[in-house]
């Protein structure tokens, strides 16, 4: 009886049954399920558990209730082929989506308040913790900008492709300049048109400043790449003691500022005034 029963199971499943007494999987990590599965598979390798069904059963038995509910359909209707691999795929996909949603809600709860934008950004990165290096940069940028005042976002829209750290520093500068004026206008129930015009002028100035700051380094890098070594040599200096008019127009100059010794230099014609 024993031999015939054992013969009905594949060798890997029989080995799983023998090793099952000594294996205990680690507690599931919702924050990093990929690492958790790496630990699980290390234990499977140590115990020589290779069967898909046995691996599936071990993982299901070790899942916390709230995680098991997330893959309820896979657990209740076990796949006929590669059940462990499919359970792993679904767990990774669904817990990762849930973690992104949790982080989104966590970051959305932060407000600028009386902090500087750079301080707000550091706080958001602290909340992300070790996820900061893998979190979607575009999503973090969007969430950060949503926390800033509308007039600051309007100015930063012209900044172009700069890092989020550079955006935060620009926002610091904008708020430092613009906040007193904005606050003064906001306190007045009926601001004069001159105040509004002044505010618009300052906004235009700040917009231009942001544009110049964001493009300066890029243009400088382009010029350095395009210039040849010969171009980088110092340009010749004008003769000493020659006034601006003669440096600019030479013999055609009809004016001079003293002192000027242009007429005494070799090859120069006497000036006619």
TrEMBL record:
InterPro entries hit by this protein: DUF7041
Superkingdom of origin organism: Eukaryota
A UniProt-annotated Pfam family: DUF7041
Chain ranges of the DUF7041 domain: 25-107
Sequence segments annotated as region (Disordered): 220-247
PANTHER family: ENDONUCLEASE, RNA-DIRECTED DNA POLYMERASE
Protein name: DUF7041 domain-containing protein
Organism: Ornithodoros erraticus (European soft tick)
């Amino acid at each position: 009886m024993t031999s015939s029963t054992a013969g009905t199971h594949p060798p890997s499943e029989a080995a799983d049954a023998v090793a099952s007494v000594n294996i205990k999987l680690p507690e599931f990590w919702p924050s990093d399920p990929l690492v958790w599965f790496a630990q699980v598979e290390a234990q499977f390798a140590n115990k020589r558990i290779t069967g898909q069904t046995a691996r599936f059963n071990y993982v299901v038995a070790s899942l916390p209730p709230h995680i098991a509910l997330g893959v309820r359909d896979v657990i209740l209707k076990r796949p006929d082929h590669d059940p462990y691999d499919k359970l792993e795929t679904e767990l990774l996909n669904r817990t990762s989506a849930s973690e992104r949603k949790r982080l989104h809600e966590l970051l959305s709860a932060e407000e600028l308040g009386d902090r500087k934008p750079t301080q707000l950004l550091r706080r958001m990165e602290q909340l992300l913790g070790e996820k900061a290096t893998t979190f979607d940069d575009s999503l973090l940028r969007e969430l950060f900008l949503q926390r800033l005042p509308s007039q600051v976002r309007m100015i930063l829209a012209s900044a172009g492709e700069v890092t989020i750290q550079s955006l935060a520093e620009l926002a610091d500068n904008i708020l430092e300049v613009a906040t007193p004026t904005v606050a003064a206008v906001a306190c007045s129930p009926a601001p004069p048109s001159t105040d509004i015009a002044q505010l618009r002028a300052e906004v235009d100035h700040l917009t231009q400043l942001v544009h110049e700051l964001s493009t300066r380094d890029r243009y400088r890098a382009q010029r350095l790449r395009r210039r040849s070594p010969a171009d980088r040599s110092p340009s010749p200096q004008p003769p000493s003691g020659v006034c601006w008019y003669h440096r600019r127009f030479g013999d055609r100059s009809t004016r001079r500022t003293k002192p000027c010794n242009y007429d005494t230099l070799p090859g120069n014609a006497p000036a006619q005034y």
